[in-house]
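Whiteboard transcription, Tuesday session. T.W. wrote the structure tokens on the left side:
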């Protein structure tokens, strides 16, 4: 789970400045919303972080229910 959240954090840390820099390119395609509108950017970031956390949580939850000795003997 920690690895998944670390990847989400790195993605947000690299993606937010990149999106801010590219906002001038897409500003002509947005109607009624500024390209650097803070609630929109934070909302999109929160949704992507939630999806990333869920993508890490589901396999981690499933793996935590398996007995480690059974998993080791399987291979």
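and on the right, the sequence the group agreed on:
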């Amino acid at each position: 789970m920690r690895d998944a959240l670390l990847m989400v954090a790195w993605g947000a840390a690299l993606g937010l400045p990149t999106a801010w820099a590219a906002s001038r390119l897409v500003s002509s395609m947005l109607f009624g919303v500024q390209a650097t509108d803070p609630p929109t950017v934070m909302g999109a970031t929160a949704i992507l972080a939630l999806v990333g956390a869920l993508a890490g949580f589901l396999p981690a939850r499933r793996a935590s229910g398996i007995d480690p000795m059974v998993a080791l003997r399987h291979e």
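Someone added at the bottom: The CA atoms of residues 48 and 63 lie 23 Å apart.
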